Amino acid sequence: MNSILDDFKMAFRSGNILNQIIVINLVVFVCFNVFVYVILTVSGQSELYSQIYAYLSLPSNPASLTFQPLSFITYMFLHRDFFHILFNMLFLYWFGRIIVEYLGQNKILGLYVLGGLSGGVLYILLYNALPFYQNLASVSILAGASAGVTAVVVGAATFQPNFTVQLFLLGPVRLKYIAIFVVLSSLLGTVGTNAGGEIAHLGGALLGYLFMVQLQRGSDWSKPIARFLIWGKSFFVRQPKIKVSYKNEQRFGSSSSSRKTSSSRKKKAASKETSQAEIDAILDKISEKGYDALSKEEKQKLFNASNK
Length: 308
What we know:
The protein contains 13 helices and 4 strands. It is mostly helical. Helix 8 (about 145-160) runs parallel beside helix 10 (about 195-215).
């Protein structure tokens, strides 16, 4: 058990956002479906389990949404079926690695969160605007990472449409054809039993496409999400202690040494700033021309920076 916890801790300490998203989904699935479901069912409170699940899911009814606004976030980490989370996490991992390799960690976070939000908004809008869904609008709920995952799939295909992956029984297939299949199958499913989920897929797909188009034009939609994450982490990270130096230290000739220390710190800070400026320039180059346009030296610098 300790080794499993250590693996989860390592996933967060490594700073790999893709792994962190997957771990969060898995932990929520295990805690909610194994512990909460089993405990409440055994104790004869299975109805309470359904109420909790409904509260964490995204309702299509705007009146219900006013009482559970956080469901816009919680729904995209909530799964009830094993195969649902299995395929979502597999697709997220496969296509997310492409995004991370070429564009960095923040882009995968932006695609997943904004794709989930976009899918949820489209789901609510269509269920309340189209007569076909109005009979379901008062009782329908949405759960799962599919909208965010679809945004990642379509985003990767938009950025690298001719990137080839090996599919079981099919062989090499380009990303653009996988994305087209995902979108068309979701479009056909909008009149099926999982209509709300398929609509959310389409919302995520649209976001993934627009995200990459705007990124190629120089507009990075992931920046607000990354800033919010950094702000949130600041509440859980210890601030460095302030070192106080006393005046009597200068009487014993420590003045010159402190000046040397100060100058060396300034030099180190300047070198760090230069290094950060180089990394920013490399990331800008990736956004404009792609990862393959980097020189061997630039790739090495980016690798070294990601492992600090």
